[in-house]
Specification:
Elements lengths: L4 H9 L7 E2 L2 E9 L6 E7 L1 E3 L2 E5 L10 H8 L2 E6 L2 E9 L2 H14 L2 H7 L7 E7 L1
Antiparallel strand pairs: 1-2, 2-3, 2-6, 4-5, 5-8, 6-7, 7-8
Protein backbone atom coordinates (compact mmCIF):
# COMPACT_ATOMS: atom_id res chain seq x y z
CA UNK A 1 0.00 0.00 0.00
CA UNK A 2 1.48 3.30 -1.10
CA UNK A 3 0.92 6.76 0.31
CA UNK A 4 3.15 9.67 1.24
CA UNK A 5 6.65 10.14 -0.17
CA UNK A 6 6.95 6.62 -1.64
CA UNK A 7 3.57 7.05 -3.34
CA UNK A 8 4.72 10.31 -4.96
CA UNK A 9 7.97 8.71 -6.17
CA UNK A 10 6.26 5.66 -7.72
CA UNK A 11 3.50 7.79 -9.27
CA UNK A 12 6.03 10.13 -10.91
CA UNK A 13 8.36 7.33 -12.03
CA UNK A 14 5.51 5.48 -13.77
CA UNK A 15 3.43 8.48 -14.99
CA UNK A 16 0.69 7.31 -12.65
CA UNK A 17 0.62 3.68 -13.84
CA UNK A 18 1.40 2.91 -10.18
CA UNK A 19 -0.39 5.11 -7.70
CA UNK A 20 -3.18 6.71 -9.75
CA UNK A 21 -5.52 3.88 -8.80
CA UNK A 22 -5.32 3.29 -5.07
CA UNK A 23 -7.56 1.34 -2.67
CA UNK A 24 -10.52 1.42 -5.04
CA UNK A 25 -10.28 5.13 -5.83
CA UNK A 26 -8.08 7.53 -7.81
CA UNK A 27 -5.25 9.76 -6.68
CA UNK A 28 -3.62 12.88 -8.10
CA UNK A 29 -0.42 14.60 -7.06
CA UNK A 30 -0.79 18.16 -5.79
CA UNK A 31 2.32 20.33 -5.61
CA UNK A 32 2.01 23.50 -3.55
CA UNK A 33 4.58 26.10 -2.55
CA UNK A 34 5.52 25.89 1.12
CA UNK A 35 4.23 29.05 2.76
CA UNK A 36 7.27 29.28 5.04
CA UNK A 37 9.99 27.51 3.06
CA UNK A 38 9.04 28.56 -0.46
CA UNK A 39 9.91 24.99 -1.49
CA UNK A 40 7.65 22.76 -3.60
CA UNK A 41 5.63 20.25 -1.52
CA UNK A 42 3.87 17.33 -3.22
CA UNK A 43 0.99 15.41 -1.68
CA UNK A 44 -0.99 12.45 -3.09
CA UNK A 45 -4.72 13.12 -2.72
CA UNK A 46 -7.90 11.27 -3.55
CA UNK A 47 -9.81 13.19 -6.22
CA UNK A 48 -12.84 13.25 -8.43
CA UNK A 49 -13.28 15.28 -11.58
CA UNK A 50 -16.11 17.82 -11.56
CA UNK A 51 -16.68 19.60 -14.83
CA UNK A 52 -13.25 20.92 -15.77
CA UNK A 53 -11.96 20.94 -12.18
CA UNK A 54 -10.55 18.30 -9.84
CA UNK A 55 -12.06 18.02 -6.36
CA UNK A 56 -10.01 17.12 -3.27
CA UNK A 57 -10.85 17.15 0.45
CA UNK A 58 -8.68 18.79 3.12
CA UNK A 59 -9.58 16.13 5.67
CA UNK A 60 -6.21 15.54 7.33
CA UNK A 61 -7.71 12.27 8.57
CA UNK A 62 -10.12 14.20 10.79
CA UNK A 63 -7.32 15.93 12.72
CA UNK A 64 -8.20 19.20 14.48
CA UNK A 65 -6.05 21.31 12.12
CA UNK A 66 -6.04 21.76 8.35
CA UNK A 67 -3.42 19.78 6.38
CA UNK A 68 -0.25 21.64 5.43
CA UNK A 69 -1.08 21.50 1.71
CA UNK A 70 -4.34 23.37 2.36
CA UNK A 71 -2.56 26.03 4.42
CA UNK A 72 -0.07 26.41 1.57
CA UNK A 73 -2.93 26.92 -0.90
CA UNK A 74 -4.49 29.53 1.36
CA UNK A 75 -1.21 31.46 1.17
CA UNK A 76 -0.74 30.86 -2.59
CA UNK A 77 -3.57 29.23 -4.59
CA UNK A 78 -1.32 28.51 -7.60
CA UNK A 79 -0.34 24.85 -7.78
CA UNK A 80 0.83 22.06 -10.06
CA UNK A 81 -1.30 18.94 -10.50
CA UNK A 82 -0.49 15.55 -11.99
CA UNK A 83 -3.32 13.21 -12.97
CA UNK A 84 -1.87 10.03 -14.43
CA UNK A 85 0.73 11.17 -16.97
CA UNK A 86 -0.84 14.63 -17.41
CA UNK A 87 0.69 17.59 -15.55
CA UNK A 88 -0.75 21.10 -15.50
CA UNK A 89 -0.96 24.33 -13.55
CA UNK A 90 -4.05 24.92 -11.44
CA UNK A 91 -5.62 27.54 -9.26
CA UNK A 92 -7.19 26.27 -6.06
CA UNK A 93 -10.33 27.57 -4.44
CA UNK A 94 -12.33 26.38 -1.48
CA UNK A 95 -15.84 25.30 -2.43
CA UNK A 96 -18.51 27.82 -1.56
CA UNK A 97 -21.15 26.72 0.97
CA UNK A 98 -23.76 26.38 -1.81
CA UNK A 99 -21.64 23.88 -3.77
CA UNK A 100 -19.90 22.07 -0.91
CA UNK A 101 -22.76 19.72 -0.06
CA UNK A 102 -22.92 18.26 -3.58
CA UNK A 103 -19.14 17.96 -3.84
CA UNK A 104 -18.84 16.41 -0.37
CA UNK A 105 -21.43 13.76 -1.28
CA UNK A 106 -19.55 12.98 -4.47
CA UNK A 107 -16.25 12.59 -2.61
CA UNK A 108 -17.81 10.51 0.19
CA UNK A 109 -19.08 8.09 -2.47
CA UNK A 110 -15.50 7.23 -3.39
CA UNK A 111 -14.04 7.54 0.13
CA UNK A 112 -16.74 7.01 2.80
CA UNK A 113 -14.19 7.68 5.57
CA UNK A 114 -14.59 11.41 4.86
CA UNK A 115 -17.91 11.31 6.74
CA UNK A 116 -16.16 9.67 9.71
CA UNK A 117 -13.35 12.23 9.58
CA UNK A 118 -15.89 15.07 9.77
CA UNK A 119 -17.60 13.46 12.76
CA UNK A 120 -14.26 13.18 14.59
CA UNK A 121 -13.38 16.89 14.42
CA UNK A 122 -15.00 20.22 15.23
CA UNK A 123 -13.22 21.69 12.20
CA UNK A 124 -15.33 22.24 9.09
CA UNK A 125 -13.37 20.16 6.57
CA UNK A 126 -12.85 22.15 3.36
CA UNK A 127 -13.55 20.82 -0.12
CA UNK A 128 -11.13 22.26 -2.68
CA UNK A 129 -11.51 22.66 -6.43
CA UNK A 130 -8.33 22.60 -8.49
CA UNK A 131 -9.13 24.49 -11.68
CA UNK A 132 -6.63 24.06 -14.55
CA UNK A 133 -5.03 27.22 -15.89
CA UNK A 134 -3.22 27.69 -19.17
Amino acid sequence: MLFGKEHVERYRATDGAEGHEWNGTTVLLLTTTGRNSGEPRTTPLIYRPDGGAYVVVASNGGAPDHPQWYKNLQADPQARVQVGAEEFGARARTAAPGEKSRLWSSMAEVWPQYDEYQKSTDRDIPVVLLEPVS
